[in-house]
Amino acid sequence: MRDIHEHNCIVRRMAPAGRVHFVRLLLCVLFVVYFCSFGARAERAYEPVDAVIPFECVNAKGAENATFNIQLKAEDSGAPVPKVTQITLNKAGQGEFRITIEEPGTYVYRVYQKKGSDSTVRYDNHKYDIHVCVMNGEDDKLTYTISVNYADTDVKPTALAFENKVASDRRKPDTTEETTEKSTEKTTEPTGSDVVQTGDDSGIIFELFFVSLIGILILLGIKYISGKGGQHE
Q1: SS in 3 state form for the chain?
Q2: I need a labelling partner for 86 at 20 to 30 A (CA). Which of 106, 115, 129, 207 fits?
Q3: What are phi and psi of 127, to 5 degrees?
Q4: CB burial class (10 A; 0-12, 13-18, 19+) of residue 86?
């Protein structure tokens, strides 16, 4: 207590200008202490984490033994990228990208399949956006979670998978059969029941005309006979 009292006495005995300089010096010391502590926190080293992005090629029969190239691209300029950004599968199967991340944050990547040169394969052209959220866990150990969407949408797939098919799958047998059936129906209708029905109608009209003509002739004959009888009397 005596030291504090003596210190306060010294400050009181200072001239006003000296007091101002003393306060400035104190503020500078406090600023330096705060800046050093902030820098220490900023330079804190986290224990890195390997974020794993798995994918799968699910191929139709006839396309399972082709070669498939899966590509990863960072969508953010500051996002860490793996040494290997393209993985080649010589047949249908699974693979993964492994990214070493040293700082917390959210990093966005795009995963897609490059079109191959095999003309017998129809390559899946879906693209996926991968959001890797990295957080600081216990003892500065980083943890992460992954969220997958179809590229530029909010739609989430059931899995990060590429479904490749054989090129002949582009045909649509159902549509072809349906078109063939319609063409057959159009061809058979004019040569079938329509033609027969047209003949029946013409026969009925002819019979009605013939009966009407006979009736008219009979009426004329009766009238003629009646006229002759009247003249004879």
Answers
A1: CHHHHHHHHHHHHCCHHHHHHHHHHHHHHHHHHHHHHHHHHHCCCCECEEEEEEEEECCCCCCCCCCEEEEEEECCCCCCCCCCCEEEECCCEEEEEEEEECCCEEEEEEEEEECCCCCCEECCCCEEEEEEEEEECHHHEEEEEEEEEECCCCCCCCCCEECCEEHHHHCCHHHHHHHHHHHHHHHHHHHCHHHHHHHHHHHHHHHHHHHHHHHHHHHHHHHHHHHHHHHHC
A2: 106
A3: -120, 145
A4: exposed
